[in-house]
Amino acid sequence: MARDSQEMDKRQMSNELCKMSQGISDNKMEEGVMSVLQEKLYDNSSFLAAILDTVGALVLVTDRDGCVVRFNRACERLTGYVYDDVKGKVAWDILWSKEDAEAVKEIFSSLSYDKFHTTHLSDNKQANESYWVCKSGSQRLISWSYNVILDQNGYVSYLLATGIDVTQHRLVERRLDYLTHFDSLTDLPNRTLFYDRLSNALGQARRYDQMFALLFLDLDGFKYVNDTLGHDMGDLLLKKAAKKLPLCVRNSDTVAHIGGDEFVIILPMINDIRDAAIVADKILDVFTKSFQLDNHECFVGVSIGISIYPTDGDDIDTLLKNADISMYKAKDTGKNNYKFYNSDMNAKAMRRLKLENNLRRALQRSEFTLNFQPKYELSCDTIAGMETLIRWNTPQHGFVSPVEFIPVAEETGLIIPIGEWVLRKSCFYGKQWQESGHKHLIMAVNLSARQFKSYDLIKSIESILEETGYNPEQLELELTESVVMEDAESAIKVLRNIKNMGIHIAIDDFGMGYSSLSYLKRFPIDRLKIDRSFVNDITTDTDDAAIATAIIAMAHSLKLKVTAEGVETVEQLEFLRSLNCDEAQGYLFSKPLVPEKFTELLQNQKTSE
Ligand code: C2E
Ligand code: MG
Ligand code: MG
Q: Taking the model in full, what pTM does it have?
């Protein structure tokens, strides 16, 4: 039913459009009007006025300064102004909308050359669309042609604008465009627009070598609602479901209704399959709430199949087919859940979900501990400080690497309490080492993106320092390049606040991001840490050696210290030493140590004091 009426609607619109475009060809009349005007404007004013008033098109004539000298009946009928209202006034000041006035003024002035050669007339004709504001305040979209009227000597004496009201035409066009691309029941993109967006997503993903996800959704129990409560309630359910889905995705994602109770979602340019799992989780969560269909309360679930480009297919049909297959798998395994096409991804998504749940309780259960890895001053081979590295040992998963759980903590916001715990605990140990005589150790603590952007960061650091009595001058915070580069201006402000407290700032994993050293000059930082990946091949790969050499030389010229991360061999160390690298950290010296072992290390080795 709905589809039939949509088709009729479209046909009617097409007819109307046809009629209108015939109307527009009236515009040709302008050529005739021009020649009459040129001959008669002075000679026979009332004769000319009579002709102009019979013309259906809008005819506006101004002198070369833009003041209105003719305003035909069609103009009066459309705007509600009479000629006397506008006579002698600058046309674009009174008739055109504020937004268009400037552009129209420019068109007029481009026409008003002192001497205008007739041979240029047709070349210089200009057409465009702009809005007129009527006396009532309403706006009409007019399609315009502009031209000039010359005197006997070939000088420009008048400027002519002829126009057709295309407001209705545009509305119909827009409606037609809407009906071609959107589903009139749910207002979501329809199958046509969905294919369009999908092929765009595919093109983009191929070009940038990125992943994207396709989610195929089917409502569980839709048929039951349709059969028991009737089709109207079925339609209402689809409408309500269609309103909820876009709330689970970003604006740049596409949610489409491709028929029956089937919806599809495109998540372009994802970084990780987790992004697709997060959206699927949100959708399942939203569908746990009931739908109110008039006075019936209904619970409807959703089964979701997910395919990922490029792993599950590199063309539209395969990706769609595989998302569809996975949706059926989700239905087969108890409905109201999601399934990736690739079974490894299912396992990964499950692990992430479990990790997230366990991470929520890890702080209360005291499952985190800290390790400290010493950093060595290369000029005197002594311990200059240490980096704090968090460790998570769970009863369920055993030891989980921070590389895996820190991103989950970031996404869930749990990084804020976890990060505070790390800083407090680090300062607590740091204070003890200082009190036992190791006063000059600088302790480095990693700060994640979300912590850095958190509104409370400065207050939280201040209160932890106060609480533990740790000297801010002995603290260094490590941030990655991407964190400070993302919003450089506000990052500079936060960094200044941190520096003002006396705390040092290091850029971690340097070389992995895209920042240029000259740009970094603007940041109030003290140190760069060359990423382990460069250090690893520094003695075998000439490119890595060149990069490390350049980083150290340029950092020094900017008065920054350099720490090399992940030094594992004597050869690497000697190479770094030859480049005058300031500090090194890595398994060659020591793995990250539990606090007791770090205390022993301090006792057994001379420090930089
Ligand atoms: P990072 O800050 O770059 O830390 C250095 C990583 O390199 C640590 O891994 C360390 O154990 C490892 N490493 C040090 N020397 C060597 C070496 O010679 N060879 C090799 N192969 N590896 C070495 P870890 O502890 O697994 O931490 C990984 C990342 O997790 C850290 O990279 C940091 O980004 C993050 N992280 C660790 N603890 C925290 C924390 O408390 N807060 C935040 N926000 N992030 C943390
Ligand atoms: Mg670090
Ligand atoms: Mg690092």
A: 0.59
